[in-house]
Amino acid sequence: MLKKVTLRFYEELNDFLPPDKRKKRFEHSFIDRTSIKDMIESLGVPHTEIDLILVNGVSVNLAYLVKDKDDISVYPMFESLDITNLQHLRAKPLRKPKFILDVHLGTLAKYMRMLGFDTLYKNNFNDDEIVNISLKERRAILTRDRGILKRTEVTHGYWVRSTKPREQIFEVINRFDLKSVVKELSRCLVCNSLLKIISKKKIIDRLPPKVKEYQTKFYYCKECSKIYWKGSHYTNMLTVIEKLI
Questions:
Q1: Which of these, 129, 102, 99, 127, lies nearest to 112 by C-alpha position?
Q2: Which of 56, 110, 113, 174 lies at a C-alpha separation of 20 to 30 Å from 36?
Q3: DSSP for residue 156
């Protein structure tokens, strides 16, 4: 028997919907017994983006079985509205922001490390590896692939809307409220390890002539042996950071 519900998605959740369903209440038909999680994700919205679902004015969890003629409202994370007494769906924020990025976000990974954020990235990570690492190390998944965020076991993740790296980093900083934890020149741009200060004497044979002459402070990555100093690349980095935050 064909059943019908009405749905309304709010704010940025409309990014996942086709134009004819955005910012308005619409009707949706279904036949089989289905959970509200499955119905919502069948429309393209990952559960990691949702903080509250109201069915006929009452908050429900993702396991709720949809009934004929239900009226469903779906909300993203709230910034100011107090919903303390309602049933939150989003897992509590991670105490220490850490991230793992999918294969489409290599440049974003470099920008994030530039700002000092703990960011795992490999261009050959598959979805299973990303999810497993996310759960084991409590890392939020950043991705351009909505499918990975629909997996039931995923607890923290964000679908990056923009395709432009500088817009992407702006998105991430705002979504996870990271402005206060920026710490430039603290992580290796290549492997994500924390940098240590190293004396000039220990690396002088690896430095270009002009760097030997003019630079005095150096940073070293123990994992991949890369050396950093505050040269023109650092000035360029600061310019990028100022524009981003």
A1: 99
A2: 174
A3: S
3-state SS assignment for residue 146: helix
Q: What is the DSSP secondary structure assignment for residue 219, as one 8-state letter?
A: E
Per-residue model confidence (pLDDT) at position 80: 40
Helix or strand holding residue 141 (H, E): strand 140-143
Residues in CB range of 96: below 8 A, 6 or more apart: 118, 138
- Positive or negative: CA dihedral 73, 76, 81, 85: positive
Strand partners, 118: 98
pLDDT digits (tens, 9 = 90+) for 162-219: 999 889 998 999 888 888 888 888 999 999 999 999 999 999 999 999 898 889 899 9
Q: How many CB atoms lie within 10 A of CB 6?
A: 13
The domain locations on the chain are 3-75, 98-181, 188-228
Please report the pLDDT score of residue 230 as a whole number. Answer: 83
Rounded to an integer, the average pLDDT of 2-10 is 96
Look at residues 111, 109, 96, 116 and name the one whose alpha carbon lies nearest to residue 144: 109
Name residue 141's amino acid: I
- CA-wise closest residue to 45 among 24, 20, 14: 14
Distance CA 99, CA 192 (A): 11
- Taking the alpha carbons at both ends of the chain, their separation in whole angstroms is 54
3-75 CATH fold: Ubiquitin-like (UB roll) (3.10.20)
Task: Give residue-wise pLDDT tens across range 131-176.
Answer: 999 999 999 999 999 999 999 999 899 999 999 988 999 899 988 8
